[in-house]
Here is the input.
Amino acid sequence: MSRLPIRVVKVGGSLLRFEQLPRALNRWLADQPAEPHVLVAGGGPLADCIRDIDQTHAIGESFAHELCVHLLETTGRLVEHWVDGARLITRFDELQQELAESAPRRALVFSVEDFLQRHEDHVPGVPLAHSWRTSADSIAARVAVALQARELVLLKSCDPPALDNLQTVADGTLVDLRSVSRVGVSDLGANAARIEDFLNRFPTAG
Here is the structure.
């Protein structure tokens, strides 16, 4: 694993509609600590299309989940295209090898399909459901746990209030802890449990 602390950054899918996202994301990264950032892109409007198809044709939550996860490589490639010097990685073992280098690349965009198919079940904590109950926030949290990341950052398309630390974020509604999926069905707290699991395993950022 990297000698430097790792930050996992979930780039919210709703930000894909933000016209200034490439410039804003590069400026934000330039202001961050000099440590590797693992960027996980959300599904945003692409996932919304799958949601609409599922509502129309009832393709099934498990299949819809698989399609959405597959689409995350597409949104990841967009983030890679926009972020200066970024590199897209699709295999979890390759990500681990990159982070183990003495000077890993600062911005690594991680496509999570291989991780979810082959590695996620072995990560401590609450496993992800293959359904609309799983959010990209909870996927990013599982990646953070697997990498023993120092910090999980969730970039959202809203203006946050003044916050003291990561736990304060988790206690509010900026993180997907309300556990309502894109189709408005409660997941009985599963997403909340995954984010809370990350918070319990690692110190919060002050």
